[in-house]
């Protein structure tokens, strides 16, 4: 399952991972088989799998939580930890039964969820590497296809991997059509709570009627610029052998640097959020690279053409709080399990992005977001999908970033990523991250809080290799490659 190499190359990803056991974990209680339709917002997602993983140090007496399901022992080992994970999984799937089902096409070809308690593929594995030798900066090498499982069946797959140091990596891969990150976060916290014999703090709701279309529907014309029927898209071209490739990297950003960036992005009394500030900063960097890469021959025509290109940036918006303002939905949207997402985006010429100050770019981000953070936007999007069913549709920016266009990428806020709450009884993760090389032609970026809760960000980036190399050079004092020394520092400061 992984590459094999000597110790000298382990930090570069050359280590072996051996799957030792596979089991299908189903809900502990029998359940009535039934169909669960996908909502119109679920139907906007192509068949994509999302990965998430958590790294745990070897348990010690100070990190263990004593509960009825985790016996009072100072000798927690891999076998006992896997036992806790599986037992809690079987229990939590009673409430989160969607993750134990299968996606099947209905009579018109749309995906539906068959809730049949098929169960979750649970892999046990052993990795020939220590936690502090994992090259987390380069998840393509250390995580992809090794520590995060490939999901072949069902909706969710899980892998628990024992490390040489006694540490543990717990990773999940789930079908994005069934759950967004908010829903996955709910599940992860509930799974951890169940492992510690705590009551589930937020039970999921599968009330699809909450996202029913209106009759008659009401659709704003702007949605035709954001979403497109799949049939209108040109087939994706195979990249040339020498074309730049999308790769994944993980960085950290210090809290002080974020605060300073926010100050730079705010002007004339308009305070911009950290998310708006960071997104604008990244948008400018990606635009600069568009010019730099065409500047090799000092060809003014190439530079001018690059400056005319339209660069697009989208930001994932969660509609739960917007729809909660509706009395019919009330607070139940907080517990809603499924996709409640939209991806508004802005388009500016490369020249505009590189010649204006950061505050101008941050204002542009704020403006295109402002129109999509409303209840009416999400109700209109539900109606837009209804008018086109069963024709599948997708976010337009997902297919952006081609060579003819300017650069395109999407930023998804992971600030609610509950990494510090995913404690199964042997301590808070040393590190956790989403892993989402999503397969589109546009890039993908997700900033997340670090487990120490000190205001620093961890940033997963899936961009072109050339873009990342330029960003690392241009913003080396801001976006820093994630290192073991940084993680050790978090450990020391939390003790």
Short description:
Belongs to the plant acyltransferase family. This protein has 13 helices and 19 strands.
Keywords:
6-stranded mixed beta sheet; 8-stranded mixed beta sheet; alpha+beta; 22% strand; 13 helices; 495 residues
Walk me through the topology:
Elements: E1 17-25, E2 34-37, E3 49-56, H1 78-92, E4 102-105, E5 111-115, E6 120-127, H2 139-142, E7 156-162, E8 168-175, H3 181-195, H4 223-226, E9 227-229, E10 246-253, H5 255-265, H6 274-292, H7 300-308, E11 310-318, H8 320-323, E12 341-342, E13 345-349, H9 350-355, H10 358-370, H11 375-388, E14 393-395, E15 408-412, E16 431-435, E17 443-449, E18 457-464, H12 465-474, E19 480-481, H13 484-494
Parallel strand pairs: 6-7, 11-15, 15-17
Antiparallel strand pairs: 1-6, 2-5, 3-8, 3-16, 4-5, 7-8, 9-14, 10-18, 10-19, 11-12, 11-13, 17-18
Helix pairs in contact: 1-3, 5-6, 6-7, 6-10, 6-12
Rg estimate, integer Å: 23 Å
Beta strand count: 19
N→C terminal distance: 36 Å
Helix share bin: 25-40%
Discrete helix count: 13
Describe the structure.
The structure is a single chain. With 495 residues, the chain is α+β, with helices and mostly antiparallel strands. 27% of the residues lie in helices and 22% in strands. The protein has 13 helices and 19 strands. Strands 10, 11, 12, 13, 15, 17, 18 and 19 form an eight-stranded mixed β-sheet that branches. It has a six-stranded mixed β-sheet with strand order 1-6-7-8-3-16, covered by helices on one side. A hairpin with a 5-residue loop joins β4 (102-105) and β5. The longest helix is centred in the middle third of the chain and has 19 residues, at 274-292. It is globular. The model is unreliable at 1-12 and 66-74 (pLDDT under 50). InterPro entries: Plant_Fungal_Acyltransferase. This is HXXXD-type acyl-transferase family protein. It comes from Populus tomentosa (Chinese white poplar). Pfam families: Transferase (PF02458). Belongs to the plant acyltransferase family.
